[in-house]
Amino acid sequence: MTDSAGRKGARFTPAEWPRKLRSQEWYGGTSRDNIYHRGWLKNQGYPHDLFDGRPVIGILNTWSDLTPCNGHLRELAEKVKAGVWEAGGFPLEVPVFSASENTYRPTAMMYRNLAALAVEETMRAQPIDGAVLLVGCDKTTPSLMMGAASTDLPSIVVTGGPMLNGWFRGERVGSGTALWQMSEAIKAGTMSREDFLDAEQAMSRSSGTCNTMGTASTMASMAEALGMALSGNAAIPAVDSRRRVMAQMTGRRIVQMVKDDLKPSDVLTKKAFENAIRTNGAIGGSTNAVVHLLALAGRVGIDLTLDDWDRLGREVPTIVNLMPSGKYLMEEFFYAGGLPVVLKRLGEAGLLHKDALTVSGETQWDQVKDVVNWNEDVILPMDKPLRPQGGMAVLRGNLAPRGAVLKPSAASPSLMVHRGRAVVFTDIDDYKRKIADPDLDIDETCIMVLQNCGPRGYPGMAEVGNMGLPPKVLKKGITDMIRISDARMSGTAYGTVILHVSPEAAAGGPLAIVRDGDFIEVDVPNRRLHLDVSDEEIERRLQAWKNPMSRPQSGYAMLYHDHVTGADTGADFDFLKGMRGNAVPKDSH
Fold first, then answer.
1. Using CA atoms, how far apart are residues 304 and 222, in angstroms rounded to an integer?
2. What sections of 469-554 are H helices per DSSP?
3. Rounded CA separation 2/245 (Å)
4. How many CB atoms neighbour CB 35 within 10 A?
5. How many CA atoms lie within 13 A of 154 on its CB side?
6. What pTM, to 2 d.p., does this model score?
């Protein structure tokens, strides 16, 4: 079939056009209320004919000086506006909540849900017919997609793009990844503090998000794989002129989406989520994608579970050779052809729902079937992958009855089956107090266990799961140990790190009662995570357990504590799952 823009193959029937849009409830007509809404906006110098019924497009901008990844989005917003004007729409830029990964305390994840609520109400309460979601930093992409999914107004994502490659003394410097590597080298005594400081500027040499396949680049890839962004959006560097072109083309496209009434619910299907999960495995994407996609699926009423992540990921090799799993950075990924090449390879291998609809009006396959891979060392052949199994491994057992997550592509193969003695840290402060103590009873065969860092525990589920190794172990030349927690880790991090243990310790999960000296069995091939303690002893400990974490007594922290769900369901609020609808509130004036 063909849509109103002349695109073939999409199984979507566009709405009739012209028709009355929701913005006309505010701006159309001659009533006192219409004049009230329209007249005040005219103080910005807008001519009367802009209120003639054309699509009003909200550009939801997460720019902030305190969100460095998104610091260049005001410039991109102007290009989006140009595209909207060109397509006959009326663009209005709207600032929305921007949770910065590297400045928010205790963690930006605590505010993802608040940002999603704010975006949802911004869209629902104001006279916009469609939205461009202008995002970049880790939590801005999922939070804006979650809010847009809940309102179900036509919406499209454009990301700010990654930084240029970092270089230090002839070597690539991957943002985030190099930070963890160099920090460990300091503790091991193999790098000086002066060299570490010299490398700092090399890690962030241009505007943009992390240049590794961290959470920001992963979520940009997820938006494209879900069909919520135009093809090719994910990898264009922030300072490349083609990023500005992408922003302008996105502005053009959202106007047609409003005319066609192409909504998130048309795009965010189960097939779209399955495509995204497989894509995450192929790119070696962040474990954070798990909680974000679970939350997004909940917003649109799609039944998505950890079992889907494990089932779909097992078949998918990691073919993108990027840090933290591989060698290269996002700039080279873009030059090689970017995410469209990955999607094409998945399609050729029978691992892509080719008929999944995208915001372009085309199917995923129609968009990517003719793309070319320009560097097979960056995007590898399916039969010569970086890792044979790139998807997330979901482990279960008496230590994680509702599941835990591990990223095999960033882990050590030698640790995939291991039994070790637990060294327990009751929270992140306990870890910081003990880890450098030369008398700490720990060696490389042990398993480090971190408690009370889940959604309720930290609070907010901070990225502390990739605990640095003790200096006494690092000085032996050891670079990896098994680490287990209910926390998250940065997508730029690496190692044999088992995360998102559910139920979390602060909710009374078995992780809370692990003690120093207990033995833990990890069997990734068989997806097993077992505490070698009898069922009777576990029950006795749970009965005696008292929650060391106090409940916040006011404000958003209290709301978050009382209503956040577990990591296994996306750590969204329990009152929001499946709550989609775009009812227009009646004018009260």
1. 15
2. 471-474, 535-544
3. 25
4. 13
5. 27
6. 0.94
The Cα–Cα gap between 554 and 561 comes to: 10
Angle between helix 288-299 and helix 306-313 axes, rounded to 10 deg? 120
Select from 419, 323, 433 the least CA-distant residue to 378. Answer: 323
Nearest Cα to 462, choosing from 450, 472, 474? 450
Q: Nearest-CA neighbor of 461 among 109, 94, 86, 48?
A: 109
Q: Which amino acid is at 318?
A: T
User: From the first residue on, what is the mean pLDDT of each consecutive set of 10 residues in the chain (589 residues)?
Assistant: 39 94 97 96 96 98 95 97 98 96 91 96 97 97 98 98 91 85 88 89 90 95 98 98 98 98 98 98 96 97 96 94 94 98 98 98 98 98 92 97 95 97 97 97 98 96 96 95 97 93 98 98 97 98 94 93 97 74 41
Could you tell me the two tokens for 549? 């974490």
Main-chain phi, psi angles of 59, to 5 degrees: -95, 100
- What is the sign of the dihedral through the CA atoms of 571, 572, 578 and 582? negative
Measured in degrees and rounded to the nearest 5, phi and psi for residue 379 equal: -110, 105
Distance of alpha carbon 325 from alpha carbon 331, whole angstroms = 16
Q: Which of 507, 513, 453 is nearest to 485 (CA)?
A: 453
Single-letter amino acid, residue 59: I
Q: For residue 523, what are the contacts with CB-CB under 8 A and spacing of at least 6? A: 416, 417, 529, 530
Token pair, residue 488, equals 């998250």
